Amino acid sequence: MLFRLRRKSTICNMAPLIDIKIDASSLVKLKTRIEQAIDKEKLFRPVCFGLVELMTKRIHIDGLDADGKIIGKYSEAYAKRREVKYKRVDNENIVFALTSQLENGWGVVATKRGYGVGFIDTRNYELVTNILKVKYPKVFILSASEKTYAIEYINDLFKQSL
Fold first, then answer.
1. Integer-rounded Cα radius of gyration of the chain
2. How far is CA 121 from CA 113, 114, 116, 134, in A?
3. Per residue in 62-113, pLDDT tens?
4. Phi and psi for 159 in degrees, rounded to 5?
């Protein structure tokens, strides 16, 4: 199919200013390439693995919330108990990493719309959603830099697919 737009100028009866031709078969090919590029497995899954890595470092190593602020400090008594019972002297900041169950209990999970970062274990999911999200609402969400990372990575993967 060929579309043509012809417009005569009202000034001096000039030749057409705009002449547009569109080949519909090239649009169909482009549509097919875009549909193939929007593969949830290729786009979302690798991005989620990267997000798990970034969030694990931010939360469980650095002890920071999504705003980049320290989550909190352990009380002196609790810090002493961590040291004696679990040999954890690595950090005075809250890092949710006493037994490693929480930090190892999340990862990339399949969803109806693709993939996401979530908890594999229902116990950890319930702990975070029912207790930790109430006391620490800005911890288990994406930070601005993590959102930027995800958007840029998806854009790069999409461009590579085309």
1. 26
2. 20, 19, 15, 19
3. 889 999 999 988 778 877 777 777 666 666 777 777 677 888 888 999 988 8
4. -60, -40
